[in-house]
Design goal:
ATP binds at residues 11, 72-73, 102-105. One of its GO terms (cellular component) is 6-phosphofructokinase complex. InterPro entries: ATP_PFK, ATP_PFK_prok-type, PFKA_ATP_prok, Phosphofructokinase_CS, Phosphofructokinase_dom, PKF_sf. Substrate binds at residues 125-127, 162, 169-171, 222, 247, 253-256. The protein is of the alpha/beta class. The protein folds into two domains: 3-138 and 260-305, Rossmann fold (3-Layer(aba) Sandwich), CATH 3.40.50; 140-256, Phosphofructokinase domain (Rossmann fold). Helices cover 43% and strands 18% of the residues. The structure holds 6-O-phosphono-beta-D-fructofuranose. 6-O-phosphono-beta-D-fructofuranose (F6P) is lined by residues 11, 72, 102, 125-127, 169-171, 222, 256. Residues 11, 72, 102, 125-127, 169-171, 222, 256 line the site of 6-O-phosphono-beta-D-fructofuranose (F6P).
Length: 323
Amino acid sequence: MKRIAVLTSGGDAAGMNAAIRAVVRTGIHLGLEVMGVQCGYAGLIAGNWRPLSARDVGGILPVGGTMLGSSRCLEFTTEQGPRAAIAQLEQAKIDGLLVIGGNGSQTGAFALSQLGFPVVGVASTIDNDLYGSDITIGVDTALNIALESIDRLRSTATAHHRAFLVEVMGRNCGYLALMSAIAGGAEAVCLPEYEIDPEQLAAELADAYDRGKSHAIVVVAEGASLNATGLMQHFQEHRERLGFDVRATILGHVQRGGNPGAFDRILASRLGAAATEEIASGNHGLLVGLIENQITITPLPDVVANEKSIDPRLYALAQILAK
Ligand code: F6P
């Protein structure tokens, strides 16, 4: 293995730059040439890459986003996409590829690997829905951003005795919402993993006021069966009967912005370095993640075949602590 390439794909996550830096500097340390692919799989198909030196990745460690750019590339999901990418890689004499990204990105990595190209994945998505890593790059920073917003909303909620719906990202996974609810002391949490009855939720909020609370914060996962917009509509229609005012805040992409915290910088540095060591040693077709605080490799077929579920005990905990 002489020359490898690295790309970031799918939704950006704070810490991706730290992972790129780790790949480049570990690669150079191991005697490899490292190419940076622009804009994820779209850049791979187009052969859009350039060599990266240790200095090229200087100063990116504390910066959010990804210096390589990212994309959601539909063409790569076709049969032709991965074949076109491999043709480009082989022509440029690139021997291996590191893919920093989440579920969709690792599905792409698996497709390349099935065609015989050496690929190693680095677990990175704010959704924390990727099998093969207890926690992925970007989750902790996104969680802290949600938390700051919840803390700010609580003071205005208290001032007006209002209920606030705070919608957080996470696609079809409730992890970010659940952890935001526990860390933010929310009165209720709505997750995609559990059915939502707006009347039962309203009763829980009314009960919170009856117990002497001066506000009610509800963290709603964007993938919940009723999101913040749906719940808001229901609560507004029944405003008189419910007896409390509701406002909704959708955090959206704010959660993907900003600089990575210490946890994500360290996690990304460890995973990026470990993935580079794996591919340099000739190990591929796998994802590098963190399980029980140890760097762990999981075969890509297992990664794409399995789903990661949230811990029901944490859901129960959120409800007990909301009292
Ligand atoms: O997968 C990361 C994520 O931010 C999800 O939480 C969200 O549903 C999605 O990406 C948004 O995608 P896009 O940035 O393409 O709108």
